[in-house]
């Protein structure tokens, strides 16, 4: 899979305000005309919007965002265990929205296969961003940072994940960012709201309140797959060197990053 294979001038970037399916109604929905900075300084407006978003289903949240929030839009995805849900939700609303993928160079072979499978199945507009350094050059300069304690791991994540994500969002001109984070995934995500402001742009979490069962039922209803490694006990999937299956750990906290942390930093969360 090519790295940054679509040039900025050739990217299918979605700037349209909405592509609303007939089955979705926005009657009675709040109208948001504030900038991200204004929204972040107005707790009353934020509560009104988030309370309403919490009262409707995920598809309505996506359509509301496309109608009320500024474009260009983008959806980030790690193509992890349950990634097909958010990809399907957003693609059903507007298939031109770029799907921003960070290729660290250390993804499982099965993850690359999963990306291609869903790209074809859902007609996704995949945009891949990576570190400018090859894996060989990176390890020659830094060694295996993920084996160098918390400090080394943080540096690895900044260089191989966070910086490419930041660059990808800027390259795509992203004003509103969709992400598939859920409150139930970790304590660090327990306070997520459906609409937030992150780094000067709106950030939308359409499935913020979903349970694992909600995910399962959605995947089943729409004939969508889990990640190929799901059946082997991998329920949280990232880089091959920092991901473990359930049978390899004593606690869910050890599934990623050897238990040193839960968040990679891409979403600005600590934990």
Descriptors:
Rossmann fold, 34% helix, single chain, globular, alpha/beta, 271 residues
Describe the structure.
- By secondary structure, the chain is α/β, with parallel strands linked by helices.
- It has one domain (8-19, 31-134, 162-236): Rossmann fold (3-Layer(aba) Sandwich), CATH 3.40.50.
- Helices cover 34% and strands 9% of the residues.
- Strand 1, helix 4 and strand 2 (98-102) form a beta-alpha-beta unit.
- The chain is globular, with a radius of gyration of 18 Å.
- Residues 1-22 have low confidence and may be disordered.
Report the order of strands and helices: HHHEHEHEHHEEEH
Number of domains: 1
- Report the CATH topology name: Rossmann fold
Gyration radius, in Å = 18 Å
Strand line-up of the largest beta sheet: 3-2-1-4-6-5
State the helix count. 8
What is the chains' assembly state?
single chain
Going by CATH, the architecture would be 3-Layer(aba) Sandwich
Q: What structural class is derived from the secondary structure elements?
A: alpha/beta
Let me know the average pLDDT: 86
Overall, the morphology is globular
Strand content: 5-15%
The total strand number stands at 6
- Separation of the first and last Cα atoms: 31 Å
Low-confidence spans: 1-22
CATH superfamily: HUPs
